[in-house]
Amino acid sequence: MKRKLDSEELGIILLSSFMDEFYPSEESVTPEAFILYHYNGLKRSCPGEKVVVYRDGRATLVDFEVKMYSENSPILTCLQTKWPGLEVEWCGDGVPSLN
User: Fold this and answer.
1) Which of 39, 54, 82, 95 has the largest CB neighbor count within 10 A?
2) Residue 55 main-chain phi, psi, to 5 deg
3) Cα–Cα nearest to 28, from 14, 43, 42
C-alpha cells in the first residue's frame, strides 16, 4: 500500500492519491470561496501587543476567462501559486505583508 500511495518513495502521500485509494466514489469538490487566515510571525505584525493577531480575508476562486485585473500583492502572488484564479478581500485595513 505504501508503495502504491508513495510511488516516488519520498515519504509524502498526496491527498488526491489517498482519496482515490480509500474513497474512490467521493467527488473532489473545491470550494468556490473560503475564509483565509494569515499570520507572518514578524514582531511588527503585532505592534505593542503580546498576543498573536491573525488577519482574515474572504478568498474567492475565479475562472481564468472571467478574471478581472487586480492589483497584485506579494501575498496574493504567493497564494496564486496554489490557486491561480484566487482573489482575496482582506478584512480591516490594507493587505497583510509577507515581509
Assistant:
1) 95
2) -100, 140
3) 14
| Grid cell locating 82 | 496554489
Sequence-separated (6 or more) residues with CB below 8 Å from residue 90: 55, 56, 57, 96
The full DSSP string for 6-30 is -TT-SS---HHHHHHHH-TTSPP--
C-alpha torsion 60→86→55→96, nearest 10 = -150
pTM: 0.59
Q: Which three cell numbers stand for residue 43?
A: 514582531
**Stretch 44-66: mean pLDDT:** 75
Contact 52, 59 (CB under 8 A): no
pLDDT, tens only, 6-37? 888 888 888 888 888 998 888 867 778 999 98
